Every structure is written in structure tokens, then in C-alpha cells.
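Reproducibility note. Readers wishing to regenerate the assembly model reported in the main text can use the exact inputs given here. Chain order matters: entities are listed in the order in which they were concatenated for prediction.
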Amino acid sequence: MKQISDWAFNTASQRGAQYADVRVVDERSRDLTTKNGKVGHAASSDSLGAGIRVLVNDSWGFAATDDLSRESIDRTAAKAVEIAQASATVKEHPIRMAPEPAARIEWSSPCKIDPFTTSIEQNLDLLVKIDREMMAVQGVTMVESSLHFGRYEQWFYSTEGSDIHQTRFITGAGFSALSFQGTEIQKRSYPNSFGGQHQNKGYELIEELKLLENARRIAEEAVALHKADKCPQGKGTLVLGSSQLGLQIHESIGHPIELDRVLGMEANFAGTSFLTLEKLRKLRYGSDIVNVVADATEQHGPGLGTFAYDDEGVKAQCTPIITNGLFTGYISSRETAHTIGENRSNGTMRAEGWNRIPLIRMTNISILPGEKPLTFEQLLADTDDGIYLETNRSWSIDDKRYNFQFGCEIGWEIKSGKLGRMIKNPSYSGITTEFWNSMDAICSRDQWVLWGTPNCGKGQPMQTMGTGHGAAPARFRNVKLGTAYQGN
Amino acid sequence: MLDQNRAQEVFNRIKKFSTVDEVEVMFSSANYSLTRFANNTIHQNVSEVNEAASIRVAFDGKTARATTNRFDDENLKRAVQSAESIARVQEPNPERLPMATPAEANQGGPPLVRWFEQTARITPADRAEAVGQIVTTAKKNSLVTAGIYSNSEHAEGIVNSKGLNVFHKQSSSEVSITMLADDSSGWQKANFPDIRDLDHLRLAEIAAQKARESRVPQELPPGKFTVILEPAAVLDIVGFMFWDFGGLAIIDQRSFLNNRIGTRLFGEDITIMDDVYHPLQAGAPFDGEGVRRKKVTLVENGVIRNVVYARSTAEKIRHSELAAHVGNVEVTGHGFPLPNEVGEAPVNVVFITPGKEQTTEQMIAGTERGILITRLWYIREVDPYEKIVTGMTRDGTFFIENGKVKHGIRNFRFNQSLIEMLSSVEAMGQAVRSSGEESFDMVVPAMKVRDFNFTEATKF
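Running the prediction on these inputs yields the following C-alpha cells for the assembly.
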């Protein structure tokens, strides 16, 4: 692979590149799904290619190819330079790259059981068993289960001397049950909706998730929802389960802290951010117990945002984002670090594959658990009146990330410190900073889960990225409930 | 770029490596370039060359797929073996059909010319020149602009061991422009196979006008308003219902059309086709198995007439108790590549307007109190059967009073049933090819809709 970068750098520098980097990516996946006990999707895929990014006349160009022959790499590097030269004709300011020492490293994400060594027969057998367990529940009208295994190997080289070889294993699984009765479709999912749980792990994740053990309960809940009471409308106390809180973090903290959004670089598609630069270290983002980090290091856990170096050769870091409620950090790149007075990127540039440029992306954006011991049961016991919501069903937020509305699959009333009647079609809405300032309790480390969001979209052309979000159940006061069905 | 002869040659090699009854290969090949700008600067500028062979094997009621972008013998052989090994361990599914035949791929329909050299040959310098003109428009209006200007050519083909060999080549050009002032913005987007249809300067002027005229947005209390949805807003919101217009969604009971086919669900002015052959449409005239697409009337004068069917879904539904309740059942050429759990969906939607079309200006002039909406954003489904969706307005939302646009307003959140929305249409414009961000491109009109349900306002 090193030879590919030598060819690219030679061509790029001869044609005037000030800087260049090359990422060669070899990606492999296995995806299996079942529906109603029969095989749905059954596929494997691999993709190999190289992306060449060059800086010419202080402007960027990028070209990618699936042909790794010398002739093709030379042609692709020349094309990247031609593109950068065109970029330079429409610019207001030159690119300023924060300095970064060259790195030479080999790294692999911890993986106890290579998922590709497990048999497909074993994989399908598990999914079919889960389906059958759910189908045994009367009233269930459709069930689906899925497994995803990925292996992402990347070689990164830069003209500054970096030579970084990283391999990540990604494993994910989940299932759902649908129940259609009368004029209502209800759904329950486990361990999370929209594909389940995903982490940078091997097959050991599947064994930890206890999928089969939860299948019948989930199916029974899908049917029971038809007879549940509707979500109340009005303001009240809200307790969120950890997976829903993970998505709340993703949408109302993770995206607004992306410095490229703040600087207007995503204004046409993903949007901008209410977190304008003057708010850094001044805005009270949340209450005193809200502490959030952007942590890509291995110490944080096997999140989808864990790596050793980002895709422009910057070492993984842990950045305090919200500290005791105060907004303290953005996620940045070498190009943007100077805009917040930093002389180094905090290492969050990530690309979907060999054919895409790296963008500022969430790593693991996690809320830290409470320091005092607090179990979920103790949190409930401390709540007189409210609702508890679990598992996301819908999510939406405006393009500056102020106003959000989330729907969940299921809820329960909390009365006198205990879960009471089931609630269907629950939803809540609010304004980001008002919501985080209303948080008055969060469970401790033993309730904290590092969730994976495998499908975060950003950029043009669109890139899908996996992000991690550690969260524990938490309580919010005076939240607007039931908005989704208001007026309907 | 891959051509049909090379596809056949690669297929022949793949077929030699296979040990099973049936083999199908779906080819894709693309040259794609996109120039992205923000803050009046080209900040990202990319190009990609890629091709892939997605190999499906089938035998004994089992099927699986493996995809690779490496066309040498060793990697093709490995992909074939991977597909065979995934299929081999499956339980046989007696509902699996043999692969499609050449006869199913050649059931008529006009030839589609959707590749234009003028589009394919656009250079980085050409794109930069166009972006420079957009930036000039922004500066002339004291605005800042962000957006994309892209061009591509791509080919897709399906070859199978029954002798089916279909191929489609297409070019695409796209521009999306946001104009930003301190407290307002405007947006326009368009996408055409032929770049000569793409008028980026006109779109830049419209986006700039919207940004200028929505400055100092005022806050209105949420509630039910008459709205005028421009075509991009219509396509993004209605796009959410078309995934339910497939036969398998009916069998699975996950469609809002369950128990509703043949009933009047929308207003009488609503007629919707799926028609890949429409002159304003794009895309290949065959589905994921190579079956020729047919024109299908989905909704006629508000009545749900038909859903679309992949081969296996049509077979399944004919032999089920649903057959008597879903109207005409025939293979329509809308299946996704197999194996999949979704089935099929219409992806070339065309709204047929009933005549008496109004321009947006005429709709505004006839509105006593309402909201003009340029674009909707982050739309998600709240209720799958009542088809309530939520989302936000974005990039140009205006208050209309006494037949005139009065001023920009802060953006609203809506929670709106699509069934109620399409039952409350008071006027439509001419259907045009339109692009958004939440759904596939469609041929849709602007719509004036009463009692659109806004539940909250945001801060800008």
C-alpha cells in the first residue's frame, strides 16, 4: 500500500501540491436479516479503493478510484490537483492547517471473536430462533431480526510522513415485532430501534446482548401497546431510558458542536448550529450535573466512534464538551482549529470510505454518569409523578438544532416512585438548552451503556457514519409531552 | 465506464466460477464529481470512479448476494463462493421464483435516452465557473452562499443465466443553492439528466430573493394555517407514503393502505402515477431483477387504485386471501434487488394535476391568511397508519395576508397527517420535476392546503 502513496505523492507534488494524503481502504461486510422466520436479506460485500486529497494554491481537491494500478493512481492524483486548482478560483481565504506531528502506528480495535469466523448457518439459526420466539405471541403480525458484521481496514499516508494502519471490527444486531390491529400499527424493538445495538467489537457483542432471552417480552409489549393509554399532553416530568438519551445527545449536542456546521460549511444540507463561536465557555448548555465528552480513545469503550487516529492523521482525544453544565468545546479539524483559538485539531475527521473525503464527525459523544450511586429503581423511587420512555420511534430537529421532537415506542406512567400503566405513542419536544438545563438526575456508571448509531448522515455527497453515545437513564423536569399528536 | 458488452464478458467469467443453477449479476459503474461551496468559497471538491458487480446465486429455493468492486478472476471467484456459501445454509423457501426471463425484460415501453455528453463532459473548471457566478449573485445581494454543483454519468445493468441482459446509461447534473443573510435564508435545488436544462443563475436569483425578503423574521403562534407548499416541500413530505404502495407492505400489514385499497382516501383532485417513461422522470426502465417497469395508476381522483408488485409478491398475493381486496394484481417491475425484505415501491412518482392549475403567485393572491413554504426538513414518521409526519420548515417561510406576502416568519414544526393533507388541497400548480433532500425526485405541483397543523415555532 505504501507504494500507492508514493506514486500519488510523486504525481501530486510534481503538479504543485503543497500537501497530500492518501487513504487506501479495504472494507468487508456481512448482512443477514430474517422476516417471519425466513431469510430476508443475505449478502456479503467487499470494496477496495484509494482516495487522494491534495492542497494546491491553498485549496482542496480530492479524487478517488477503485483501480489501484500505477497508471490509475497517477491519473487520479493528477485529477485531484486539477480539481484543487479549480477550487482555488473561488475562495475568500486560504486553507490554514493546524500542525500535526507525523505518526507511524499499527492499531486494531479489540475483538475477541472475529465475526467472520462464525458460521453463516449459526448466524441464521439465531435469527430464525428469535423470529419464532416473537411469532409465538398472538397478535404479532410481522417480525424481523438482523445481524451486521463489518471489517474496515485503512492505510493512511501523508506527505508530512504519517503512516497509519488501522483495522476496526463492527458488529451489530437487533430485532423488532410489529402488531397491526384496527387502525393502529405498534412496534417494539430490541436492544434498540433501527438496527439494534452496534459497537466496535467482535461476535462477543451478540452473546452479550441476550437477544433470544428478550424476544418474547418485546413481542408481548408490541401487542399490549394497542390497549395502552395515550400519552398525556402538557408539561411534566420525563425519565428517558439510556438508548433514547443516546439519540437525544446525538441530535441536540453531537451535531451542534460540529465546528464545520458552526462555520457554515454545511449550511446547504445538514444545516448550521445555534452554538455560534462567542458561546464557547460562556453558554450554560445544561444543568450542573450535565457533563459531556467527545472521546475517541480506546479507554472510553468500544464505541463506533473509537479509533487510534482520525482520517487526517490526528491522534484520538477526549475533549470536554459540556463541563458541569458549561459549554466548553467543539469537535474540530486541522482546517478549523484556528477559528476557536486552538493550535491543534481535536481529531474528529472521518470518512465513510475510500471514495469520500473526511469531514468533522461525531466520535463517541457521551454524557458521563452520575458520580453518586443511583440505580434506575432508585431514580424511579425518587420520582412522584412522571413518565418513563424507552426506544426511539421518530426523531426530528431543526437545522440550527434548537427545536426537537422525539417519539418513542413505549412508555410507562411513573406514580409514587413506581412504574404504572403502559403508555402508547409517547412523544416529547423542546428547545435544546432549556431541555438540558432541566435535567436534575442521572443514574450512575452501572446503568451507563455505550450505544452505537450506525447511520448518521452528513455531507454532499452524503456520507453515513457510525457514532457512539454513552448514556444512563436521566430525569428531566417540566418537559412538553405528547406534542406529536397535538391537533391530530 | 462499463458498457453492455463488458458486462456480458464479466458475467461470462462469473458464470464459469459458479456451481449452482442460476446466477444473476447487477452491475453499476459511475463517474461522479461534486463541487461544494460555503462562505462564498469552494471548500470541498471531489471526484470518484467506481464500479461494482453484485452477484446473486439461486438454487433449491435458496438465494444470496455478494458484491465486489474488483473484477479480476480471483476476486470474482471469491465473491461467487461467498454468495453460494451464504445461500447453501439457508432453509429452502418454496416461494422463491426462478430468475426473470428475457421476455419479462422486454415487454415494451419506449427507449429512454437519459445520457447526455454535455453533462458527462463537464470539467472541474466548468463547475468552478458556475459556482463563481452563484457567488457573484450572492455578493451582489450582500449575501453569503453555500451549496453544490455536480455532474455524473452512471451505468447499471443486469445479466442473468436465463439470458436476460438489460442496461441503462444516464447522466445527471444537480445544483443546490442556499443564500444566507444574518437572520434569514433562501434555497433552491434542481436535478436534470441534461445539464442544458439546469439554470443555476435563475435558481441563485430566486434563492437570493427569498433570503432578502425573509429578513427580520417575525414569530407567529403555532396553529392550523392555510399553507402554500412549493414543489420541493410537497415532494419531501409526500415521499414518506410511497414506501407503503407495495404489495409486500400490504402482506406484511405495515402499510397505511391496509384495508384501504379501493377506498377514497384523498381529495378528488389527487391522481398519482408511477411512470418511469414520463419526459420529466429519470432512472432505468427496469427493476432490481431486470423486469421492465410498467406505468401504474396509484391514486385516481383520490381513490387508492393500485400498489406495485415485484414478481414474487404478485405470486404470493394472488394465492392469498388478500387477492380479493387489493384490486388488479400484476407484476409491475418495481422490485428491489433480491434477496430483500422490503419488496417493492414506486420510485418514479408523477402527480397528474386536474387542470385549472394556478401559479404560486395566483395561490398567494387568493389567500387571505396563510404561510408560504419553500422547503421542509428532517421529516420523520410519527404514526405509520394515520401517516402523521413531523418536520420543520426551512430556508424561506413567509406570512401571507390579504393576498400578499407580508414578511418572513420563524420556522415552524408541523405534525401533519398526509391523509388529511391530501384531502385538503385547495389548488395545485403545474407538475414539475423537483428535487428535495428527504425523498427521491418527483414530478409534483405546488399545493395550497388548508388546516396544515403547526405545533411549535423555533427560535429563528
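We highlight two features of this model. The mean pLDDT of chain B is 97. Chain B has eleven helices and 19 strands.
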